Amino acid sequence: MRVGVPKEIKIHEYRVGLTPPSVAELTAHGHDVLVESGAGAGIYFSDDEYVKAGAKILPTAAEVFKQADMIVKVKEPQLHECAMLEARHTLFTYLHLAADKPQAEALRKSGAICIAYETVTEARGGLPLLRPMSEVAGRMSVQVGAHYLEKEPGGRGILLGGVPGVAPARVAILGGGVSGFNAAQMAIGMGADVTIYDVSTVRLAEIDALFQNRVKTVYASKAAIADAVAEAHLVIGAVLIPGASAPKLVTKDMLKTMLKGSVLVDIAIDQGGCFETSHATTHADPVFVVDGIVHYCVANMPGAVARTSAFALNNATLPFAVQLANHGAKAAMKANHHLAMGLNVADGEIAYQAVAEALDLPFKQPAWLA
What we know:
Elements: E1 2-5, H1 20-28, E2 32-36, H2 47-52, E3 56-58, H3 61-67, E4 70-72, H4 79-82, E5 90-93, H5 101-110, E6 113-116, H6 131-148, E7 170-174, H7 178-189, E8 193-198, H8 201-211, E9 216-219, H9 222-231, E10 234-237, H10 252-255, E11 263-266, E12 287-290, E13 293-296, H11 306-327, H12 329-335, H13 337-340, E14 343-346, E15 349-350, H14 353-359
Parallel strand pairs: 1-2, 1-4, 2-3, 4-5, 5-6, 7-8, 7-10, 8-9, 10-11, 11-13
Antiparallel strand pairs: 6-14, 12-13, 14-15
Helix pairs in contact: 6-7, 11-12
């Protein structure tokens, strides 16, 4: 198979769909890998390194799309990239379609088979291709939250861990999944006063045991979230419903109860965000202020630590990319139910029910997957 890797073009996105070691793995399986010139330059992978790994360098993304059978990316294709997709293509990348109807319509129009990293599953029930970036985003959320709590960028002027005689910042983490857990690890390490909110009492018990009482755990009722928002200096939104829009846990009215200069970090922004006042931002302009509350809603948070993120992502995606290349998309998904769960668009139809419901579009699974 001819596997194409275009350069990411989303603003301040430097990750790359395949690193040179991943290229070497695919070429060892007999596949041709076509890489756009400069695709890895933002994280110091030269074209020469790709050539040594067995890739062919092409001058433009248009040439990559023209020659490749499968496109491997990191972020969702922009609309003019969607226009380069054809029905013969397989697209393997993050899509996050529930919050992006124009992209969904463009992918339907292409007729391509579009597999989303974020809905591929595993035997134990997790999301293996979302996990590494959730780990990165969770850890980053505390880093950026601590920075924006400083006075100069608009925060309340609080040191996250406090100092002797001065209390640390209060951190509320909404969601005890992978992102929330990793956020808690970082916040505890920095000395903050941390509370995790979740609707799963089983998960809360697991968190309590794992952290050995170093965090507080609270059932995420509406009243509890309202109290959390009113008291916290940093609120991290880390909720996820696979493939679907994120629930709006924090309303605009709740912001009026918050301490001025407090910070909201919305990890769920790729799925529309879990704060009512959220809208997607970029690394070039990452924050905005509503009612005196700083909002950080960057839709590709892990792109800030792009080299770490690219390696972590490739570790997870490469086995699936090899399966797709070895067998073709249809045969690979028939053989692997967990990979098939990643199918979001095929044959001009939305093939993932939660996405169809979120976008109010018809849902239809392809007959060949039955």
